[in-house]
Write a structure and sequence with these properties.
With about 475 residues, the protein is of the alpha+beta class. The chain has twelve helices and ten strands. The chain has a four-stranded antiparallel sheet with strand order 1-2-5-10, covered by helices on one side. The radius of gyration is 25 Å and the shape is globular. The N terminus is likely disordered.
Length: about 475
C-alpha cells in the first residue's frame, strides 16, 4: 500500500469522519407518525385536509408544503411539531399527547433534510402509544382545575388585598401580599457597582396585578407535598390511582422519595425548603392550586424584580449601601454557612421578607443573557418561555453568596451541575442535591390564564429531563 493510500485510510479511521447513518423511515419515522399523527390525518375528513397514510397522499394532498424534501424549515410536518406548547398549531396537540420529544423532532428534521425518503410500498396506520401507565396528571386534569379556579374567582370578586390562607390537606398557613400592577424600570444602570452586562440595558416594563408569597416557601408547606408515603412512578403519579376513589389533588404528580435528608441538617420548622428542581416547584404550585381554587405558579423574572424593588430604583430595596444588607438578608457574611428561618430580617417596602438572600429563588423564565434585547419589542408582562431545561432563571442570591449576588437586578441561570451528586440513573426529575441554597416563592396572578397556559406553567420542565 502506497503512502497516499495509507493517508486516505487513516483519515477514514479518524473519529467523527464516518458518515452518519441515514434515518430509517420504517424503523424511526413511521412509528412517530403512526403513534402521534396518523389518527387525525387519515380517513375521509383528515385534519387540515392533510393525509399521512401513504407517501402519495402525504406529499400531494391537502395544504401544500407539509413535506418539502431537503427543507425541514419549510415543512409543516416538522415546523408544527416545534411551536410552543400553547400554540393552536402544535402537532400533535397538547390535549392529544403533544409535543413530541426533542429526539423525535430531531429525527423528523434529519429525515426531511436527507430528502424525506419514504418507500412507495409503505402504508401507515394509526397505532396506540405503548406506555407502562397512563398518568392522570394530564391536560384533562388541568381543564378541571381551570374550571374550579374560575368558579372560585367568581365567589371572591373584589379588590385585591393581602391574605392568609390554609393548605387544606396539611392545615399549614401561608401568606400572600397583593402587588399592584404598574410600570417600573427593570435592570441595573451602567453605573451600579458589580453590574453585569446581562442586567440591561434598563427597560420600562409594565405588569398586571398579582399576589406574591410574603415569605419563601418553607419546609412546613413543602415537605408534606414531597413526602407522601405513596408508591409512585418516576414521573410522580400514583401507582394506585383510581379516578373513582381519588381526588383531583391526588391526580397531581408529586415527588418520588428523596434518597437523602433534604434539609441537610440545616433546620426544618420555619426554614425555607431547598434543592428542588424547577419541575418540582411547578408541581407544588399545581398541587396547591388544586386544593385552594387559586392559580399559583412561579413568578416571572419581571414580576420577581418588580416585587423585590418595591418601588425603589437602587441596588437593593433599602438603598445602595451593602453594609446595611445584614439588616435585610442572610448571606455569606452573616448566615453561618446555612440558611436561616424566614422572616427574621427586615422586609422590603412592600412587606416581603428575604428577597435579598437566604435562598435564591426559582422564576418561571428560561435564562437568556440577552433578556432585555428579547423583551424590548413587547415589555408588557414579559416572559421568556422555556424551551430547554438549562439554564432556567433564579433570582435573589442565597446564604452562601456575596452581596453583589443579592442585588435586585442580579441574574443567574440554573446548571446541570446542581445534580452532580445525584446517584440515580437517570437522575431525578425532582431534586437538585447540589443546590442547597435554592428555593422558591409563589405567585398568583389576578388574571386567570387559559387551561393551555396553566398546563405550560406547571409542566414547562416535564418533558425535557
Amino acid at each position: 500500500m502506497n503512502f497516499r493510500s495509507l493517508v486516505a485510510l487513516s483519515v477514514c479511521l479518524l473519529p467523527g469522519t464516518l458518515a452518519a447513518a441515514e434515518v430509517d423511515f420504517v424503523k424511526e419515522i413511521a412509528p412517530i407518525l403512526e403513534m402521534n399523527c396518523v389518527s387525525c390525518h387519515s380517513g375521509d375528513e383528515p385534519d387540515g385536509d392533510y393525509t399521512l397514510s401513504t407517501k402519495e397522499m402525504a406529499f400531494d394532498s391537502g395544504s401544500g408544503g407539509a413535506i418539502d424534501p431537503g427543507n425541514p424549515d419549510d415543512s409543516m410536518l416538522y415546523t408544527m411539531t416545534i411551536v410552543e406548547r400553547t400554540d393552536d398549531e402544535l402537532m400533535p396537540p397538547l390535549r392529544a399527547g403533544g409535543p413530541l420529544s426533542k429526539n423525535e423532532t430531531e429525527l423528523l428534521k434529519k429525515w426531511i433534510e436527507e430528502g424525506a425518503n419514504w418507500p412507495d410500498e409503505v402504508k401507515l396506520t394509526a397505532k396506540v402509544k405503548k406506555a407502562t401507565h397512563i398518568s392522570p396528571d394530564d391536560f384533562e386534569l388541568v381543564k378541571k382545575l381551570h374550571a374550579k379556579i374560575v368558579a372560585q374567582a367568581e365567589k371572591e370578586k373584589g379588590d385585591a388585598a393581602n391574605y392568609k390562607n390554609t393548605i387544606p390537606v396539611t392545615e399549614v398557613d401561608y401568606q400572600m401580599i397583593a402587588v399592584p400592577g404598574g410600570e417600573f424600570l427593570m435592570g441595573s444602570p451602567e453605573t451600579e457597582e458589580f453590574r453585569k452586562p446581562e442586567e440591561g440595558p434598563q427597560t420600562k416594563v409594565t405588569l398586571d396585578p398579582f399576589w406574591i408569597g410574603k415569605y419563601e416557601v418553607t419546609w412546613d408547606e413543602y415537605e408534606p407535598f414531597m413526602i407522601t408515603q405513596v408508591d409512585r412512578y418516576k414521573d410522580g403519579s400514583r401507582k394506585d390511582y383510581k379516578s373513582d376513589e381519588h381526588t383531583i389533588v391526588d391526580a397531581v404528580s408529586q415527588p418520588t422519595p428523596p434518597y437523602t435528608e433534604m434539609s441537610f441538617g440545616m433546620g426544618q420548622h420555619g426554614y425555607p425548603a431547598i434543592s428542588m428542581t424547577q419541575h418540582a416547584a411547578n408541581k407544588y404550585c399545581q398541587w396547591l392550586s388544586a386544593q385552594t381554587g387559586h392559580f399559583y405558579r412561579l413568578p416571572t423574572e419581571a414580576e420577581w424584580e418588580y416585587a423585590c424593588r418595591a418601588g425603589t430604583n437602587t441596588a437593593y430595596s433599602f438603598g445602595d449601601d451593602p453594609d446595611k444588607l445584614t439588616e435585610y438578608g442572610w448571606f455569606y457574611d452573616n448566615a453561618n454557612e446555612k440558611y436561616q428561618k424566614v422572616g427574621l430580617k427586615k422586609p422590603n417596602p412592600w412587606g416581603l421578607y428575604d428577597m435579598h438572600g437566604n435562598v435564591m429563588e426559582w422564576t418561571a423564565d428560561q435564562y437568556v443573557p440577552d433578556y432585555f434585547k428579547q423583551i424590548a419589542g413587547d415589555p408588557n408582562n414579559p416572559y421568556i418561555k422555556p424551551i430547554t431545561l438549562y439554564p432556567r432563571s433564579v433570582r435573589g442570591g442565597g446564604w452562601d453568596d456575596d452581596p453583589d449576588r443579592l442585588r435586585s437586578a442580579a441574574r443567574r441561570g440554573s446548571d446541570a451541575l446542581w445534580k452532580q451528586q445525584d446517584p440515580q440513573l437517570p437522575k431525578s426529575v425532582w431534586y437538585h442535591t447540589n443546590a442547597q441554597q435554592l428555593g422558591f416563592r409563589i405567585v398568583r396572578p389576578k388574571k386567570i390564564p387559559s387551561p393551555e397556559e396553566m398546563y405550560f406553567y406547571w409542566n414547562s420542565a416535564k418533558d425535557v429531563y
